[in-house]
Hints:
One of its GO terms (molecular function) is glutamine-fructose-6-phosphate transaminase (isomerizing) activity. Its EC number is 2.6.1.16. InterPro entries: GATase_2_dom, Ntn_hydrolases_N. It is an enzyme of class 2 (transferase). It holds the Pfam family GATase_6. By secondary structure, the protein is an alpha+beta fold. The protein has a single domain, classed as 4-Layer Sandwich (Glutamine Phosphoribosylpyrophosphate, subunit 1, domain 1). About 20% of the residues lie in helices and about 25% in strands. A 3-stranded antiparallel sheet has the order 2-1-3. Strands 4-5 form a two-stranded antiparallel ribbon.
Amino acid sequence: MKRLEYRGYDSSGIAIDSTIQMKNYHNGFENSEGNNLLPSETVLINLVRRRGKVAILVDAVESLLKSTDGTVVFDCHIGIAHTRWATHGEPNEVNSHPQPSDSNNEFLVVHNGIITNYGNIKAWLVSI
Length: 128
């Protein structure tokens, strides 16, 4: 990311996936034998975005890691990061990338430029 900073230093963000064990979790999705039909693990997206240079993002990630109890294991399968040079919208955390679909981070998007048909895309996503 530091090498990409020349492409944008208004804001930056990073997202990585991680899994957690779902203990004592009853979700109602069970077969006739009482076995859970859903996986015993679920994917969480850890998203950190900051306004300013990549060093500010690095500091934020390091601070978050220091706040853990030391037993947290990030079993990562994929990560995505982005640096932004604002061409549309303010340079702030909300406009930083990756952009989450919702508060649950069901999916994330990184793009360059302006999405001119965002209204059509939003309408389609809301309808599904």
